[in-house]
Automatic annotation (TrEMBL):
Protein name: 10 kDa chaperonin
Native source species: Amycolatopsis melonis
Subunit text: Heptamer of 7 subunits arranged in a ring.
Annotated keywords: Chaperone
Xref: SMART domains: Cpn10 (SM00883)
Function text: Together with the chaperonin GroEL, plays an essential role in assisting protein folding. The GroEL-GroES system forms a nano-cage that allows encapsulation of the non-native substrate proteins and provides a physical environment optimized to promote and accelerate protein folding. GroES binds to the apical surface of the GroEL ring, thereby capping the opening of the GroEL channel.
Family of this protein: Belongs to the GroES chaperonin family.
Any one Pfam family match given in the protein's UniProt record, by short name: Cpn10
Amino acid sequence: MHAVSDGPKLEIQMLHDRVLVRLSQEEGERRSSGGIVIPATAQVARRLAWGDVLGVGNSVRNVKSGDRVLFNPEDQLEVEIQGEGHLVMRERDIHAVATERTEHGTGLYL
């Protein structure tokens, strides 16, 4: 059995149109704008999630490392890196980008 830390450190580079995302830490329960507590177990519809982009492939055009992205976590592939779960997805699976550099924004902010 080989331990990962025995050899040289290898930098992860994403390929093609792939994006590496770390899920944002969300609170278990949410509160509506009217103050109603919504428990974490409530399932009304499939819920999109926000995540932080850690790396992008050379064919990715609209997303950069450091951006926050909105996506469906159920449709993505999960990978463990240094004991922490990350997701790998194609750029086309990202629904929105929250970034400081906007060209065609919605006027809404996180």
